[in-house]
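Good morning N.,

You mentioned wanting to compare the apo and holo forms, so I went ahead and generated the holo version with tryptophan. This is what I fed in:
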Amino acid sequence: MKRVFSGIKPTGDLHLGNYLGALKNWIPLQEEYECIYSIVDLHAMTMQYEPKELKENVFKIACNYLACGLNPDKSILMIQSQCPKHAELTWILNCLTPVSWLERVPTFKEKSLQMADNINMGLMDYPVLMTADIILYKAEFVPVGEDQLPHLELAREILRRFNARFGEVFPEIKDIIRKGSRVKGLDGSAKMGKSLDNCIYLHETPEEIWKKLSRAVTDPARIKRTDPGDPDKCNVYSFHQLFSDEQTQVEIADGCRSASIGCIDCKKILAKNMADELEPIRTKYNEFIQKPDFVYDVLTEGNKKANIIASNTMMEVYENIGINYRS
Ligand code: TRP
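and this is what came out, ligand included:
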């Protein structure tokens, strides 16, 4: 079976952006592929963090993984740091990766501006570690949001370099991106994220969802209730496309263009559909939070399986790069 690898950084609570860009797309893949879904704590260390919080965040993400429907009987759920081969392979790949390739990665440039007082080596090395994550398991499919494409391009370059230099160990990476993989925040301008306070968290109640949606930016040209709107320019409508059925989408779009429905009513329908989809996830999340033993057992099992696959890949790597010594 072909392998899928993906991961989320444990830097805080999961929001709709994580759900739509990653988690939601991961679920159906479990039927067709051998999936490895990781909590990438080593990546989280590239930014300032508190050890206690990191640990809590890893646990919360694991609960969210399970709540959203990642199934430990089908997929491997693991913590990146608990398979040390990720870091080991990163070193080997580091020695093949020109610094100039990393300097021009868009996220590195952005982050260096945002955190000018902490441009650490890890930040620059982020895409190399991400490459190691994927190729350690010889994964060919990587479901990620659009913003990760430059990283995947780089991963391809790095693995080609390895294969050209040391022999064909790693398969090509094909990417998988799904509809709705990139969503804007409730401000309608920036990508949804924690830092901008423009997101809806997965753990929020229907009331909290409504409170946030009621203030969300719509078509900026629609000022009065009687102004006709353009659904294609409305960020709230883009959420309808992800949470409402086709029939509702058509009705909302027509109603917006003819001003027969106002933004508030449109948002109310969205809030209901969103809450309907998220409510079961929230309920299950709260259950898993109460069962840390179960959740950690799942992760321990996943870590074990991951380590076995990773060790096999690394044997090949050692052999090819010339560090296979007699034991
Ligand atoms: N960089 C990814 C993100 O921020 C997370 C990630 C780390 C990842 N390693 C990965 C995603 C490997 C896919 C495959 O979303």
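Residues 292-321 form the longest helix (30 residues).

Happy to go through it together on a call whenever suits you.

Best,
F.
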